Amino acid sequence: MLHRIGAIVAGGSICHKAGVSLIPASKIPALPDRAETFRVLETLVVGTAGGMLFLWAHLPGGLISGAMISVGVAALAGRKMALPPAITQTVLVLLGISLGALVSRQLIQHMSAYPLTIGLLALATFLSTFGSSFYLQRMHGWDPTSALLAGSPGALSQITLLAVEKGADVAGIAVVQTIRVIILTAALPLLLAVTGIAHASPPALPTEIASPWGLTALAAAAVATALLLRLAKFPASWMFGAMLASAVLHGTGLVEGGLPNWLRNIALVGIGALIGSRFARIRLSTLRSHIAAGLGSFAIAILVSSIFVAVLVMTTNVRFSDIVVAFAPGAMDAMLALALTLHIDPIFVGAHHLSRFVFVSITTPGIIHLFGRPQIDVDD
Q1: How far, in Å, CA of 127 to CA of 304, rounded?
Q2: C-beta separation of 68 from 277 below 8 A
Q3: How far apart are CA 54 and CA 89, in angstroms?
Q4: d(C-alpha 143, C-alpha 342), whole Å
């Protein structure tokens, strides 16, 4: 018996020396890759440094803009900037909780103006898409499908999937969409500050920190609501779920106070770094070849949005800064982060960007079917 046991042990030793594992590879938990960990740390350090520099210079939206620009520049310089899903989701939840803490009864009372402004936003989105598409086709020779997808503001993930399915210019579309988001996120706070609409250093957010019980309740409710929305395939579920849970807890008086300032600042830097890291997926040569198209398309979108903003300013009582950020053809998470840092109505901005997301997601496939190039051309 001992002889047999010894043989089995020896056999195990031989297998070990030969590099054959007795445990199935599928059962061994994957350890973080050292290179990937370094990339994440580098992205966070670069983003934090850029955000702190802009904050020190008293630039509006400094934490977001500084992190975005510094990470974007590093990515274009060849550094592999990236944030894993776990950090991205954490940042979005923190942002949502902070936005929900700003909800008040006064903000909710303004919701009576939403049907009119959301309807005009849908029309502005439609005209912006076709205006940008016309420009890209006539001035840069783009095919109709790629031009329509590049000119569609928001819902980038859906736009990218549709571009792959239709055989469109995915790289060009990504460049045009990214340029629009980067310029808006960096320039919008400066524009509002220079024109005096928003202060360069906006009033400080409420400094009262929720109690340990309150913070626990906020975190649990935010994550639970976000997961429910995610199961329901709701867009931007992590941010909107956390925002909804936080708004209900604060609006009902169950929780007083919000997150500590340092956690809120982490969320702002994280959003900026996340936006800037988009350049890591774009080659410098691709950026050079499409930058003129991106700038021209951006100018068309801003021109269309400006017309509708002017109409609403003259016909409604909604604050100009709220309308500007709500109608800005930028990414939903970036615009809501700006709403937080510039003290702009988060309900108004969130409702409008969510409405545009839904509008773009529903109508774009039909628009491509009617006005894009025939599918037979893609398959050839």
Answers
A1: 7
A2: no
A3: 25
A4: 39
Report residue 292 as tokens: 């003129």
The token duo for 115 is 């049907």
Whole-angstrom Cα distance, residue 214 to residue 200?
A: 31
Phi and psi, residue 375, nearest 5°: -60, -30
171-195: b (≥16 Cβ within 10 Å) or e: bbbbbbbbbbbbbbbbebbeebbee
Residue type, 61: G
Residue ranges in 57-141 assigned as alpha helix (H) = 62-76, 85-100, 105-109, 114-140
Q: What is the mean pLDDT of the chain?
A: 81
What secondary structure does DSSP assign to 34-62, as a single string? HHHHHHHHHHHHHHHHHHHHHHHTT-TTH
Give the domain ranges of the chain: 34-379
Q: Which CATH number fits domain 34-379: 1.20.1050, 2.60.120, 2.30.38, 1.20.1530?
A: 1.20.1530
pLDDT digits (tens, 9 = 90+) for 235-274: 778 988 998 899 889 878 888 888 888 898 899 899 889 8
Residue 265 CA to residue 63 CA, distance in Å, equals 7
Interatomic CA distance for residues 51 and 63, integer angstroms: 4
- How far, in Å, CA of 100 to CA of 103, rounded? 5
Which tokens is 284 given? Answer: 């410098």
Q: Within its chain, how far is the Cα of 187 from the centroid?
A: 16
Distance of alpha carbon 322 from alpha carbon 183, whole angstroms? 18
Task: Tell me if 304 sits within 8 A of 130, measured CB to CB.
Answer: no
Question: 276 near 69, Cβ under 8 Å?
Answer: yes
Query: Collapsing DSSP states into helix, strand and coil, what is residue 231?
Result: helix
CB 71 within 8 A of CB 277: yes
The pTM assigned to this predicted structure is 0.73
